[in-house]
Specification:
alpha/beta, three-stranded parallel sheet
């Protein structure tokens, strides 16, 4: 590609609310992020189970597994049993801005 030119990513401008955990859905959302989508990972209180999977551990002390499959994502913690948090999750799906 010539210097100074940037091609648009395939999913640029698309927002994905990622409610998955552990592997299959998480990797799918990661790939969407790799292709340019804005991915918002919705985690339960205490975080995704994979935050505690290790070793190996990253220099910051977190799980390298979690870091690798959740790249290109923003994260928000919502307790879907809480009516207020459940409404926030629904709002995130309607117009993802979490």
């Amino acid at each position: 590609m010539p210097s100074g030119r940037r091609s648009a990513a395939a999913f640029e401008g698309i927002v994905v609310a990622d409610f998955s955990r552990v592997l299959a859905g998480t990797v799918c959302a990661m790939l969407l992020g790799d292709l340019g989508a804005e991915v918002i990972k919705v985690e339960r209180p205490g975080g995704d189970d994979t935050r505690a999977w290790g070793p190996p551990w990253a220099p910051h002390g977190g799980s390298t597994y979690f870091d690798s499959v959740n790249r290109n994502k923003r994260s928000v913690v919502l307790d879907l049993r809480d009516p207020g948090d459940l409404e926030l999750a629904r709002a995130c799906v309607r117009a993802p801005t979490c």
